[in-house]
Design a protein that fits this description.
Order of helices and strands: HHEEHEEHEEHEE
CATH topology of the largest domain: Histidine-containing Protein, Chain: A
Distance between the termini: 83 Å
Largest sheet: 4 strands, mixed
Number of strands: 8
Number of helices: 5
Shape: globular
Length: 196
């Protein structure tokens, strides 16, 4: 009985030694997860790489947990350099956007020009009122059912900017009229684009 336990202990020690000396070329060897990312191949078409980067940056920004209708995130991709711009209500969203974009394969540098809007109870009141005026209109209600509605309402010091995309020129004009009708709004800048 004593010999059997000694043999088991020796086998356990040999197993530990064998597992700790797995060669680095062995496929099951543990690697850093960042090393597991496939690298961009040097021979790939730069336009194709550019389009892929644009898709991935857009996806990562839209998937941010606190990105909503009162924020506007925009970006430009120049090779491996991504420039972020727009306006956000929460300053943490600015840093979150930069962090998720930095982790995208092929992104070498990020310039973060996102503006964190000033804290203002009056602006908060205007945001809610403009949201209700726009998305409460029967012609625009269909836009409100998306996870991130396409008409973004940016409010800074009582001035409203509408950003995003609508289906037609009539919807763009209705959104502008609805925003202008809200009490306390000083001005409305309508940057809505019409889908092609």
């Amino acid at each position: 009985m004593k010999g059997r336990w000694q043999n088991t202990a020796v086998l356990g020690i040999l197993l530990i030694i064998a597992l700790s000396t797995v060669p680095s070329w062995y496929p099951a060897a543990v690697k850093d997860p960042k090393d597991a990312k496939p690298k961009v191949q040097a021979g790939r078409d730069p336009a194709q790489v550019q389009r892929r980067l644009e898709r991935e940056v857009r996806h990562e920004l839209v998937m941010l947990p606190y990105y909503d209708v009162f924020d506007n995130l925009e970006f430009r991709v120049d090779g491996g350099h991504v420039t972020l711009s727009g306006q956000v209500v929460r300053p943490t969203l600015k840093s979150s956007a930069e962090n998720v974009v930095k982790d995208i394969e092929g992104v070498e540098r990020v310039t973060n020009n996102i503006e964190a809007l000033p804290v203002s109870p009056n602006d908060d009141r205007i945001r809610i009122a403009v949201y209700r005026a726009i998305y409460g209109h029967t012609a625009l209600q269909r836009y409100s059912i998306r996870s991130v509605p396409p008409i973004h309402i940016i409010v800074k010091n009582g001035n409203v900017t509408l950003e995003g995309v609508v289906a037609n020129e009539a919807d763009k004009n209705i959104a502008n009229i609805q925003a202008n009708g809200v009490s306390g709004v000083f001005s409305v800048k309508n940057n809505l684009r019409v889908e092609k």
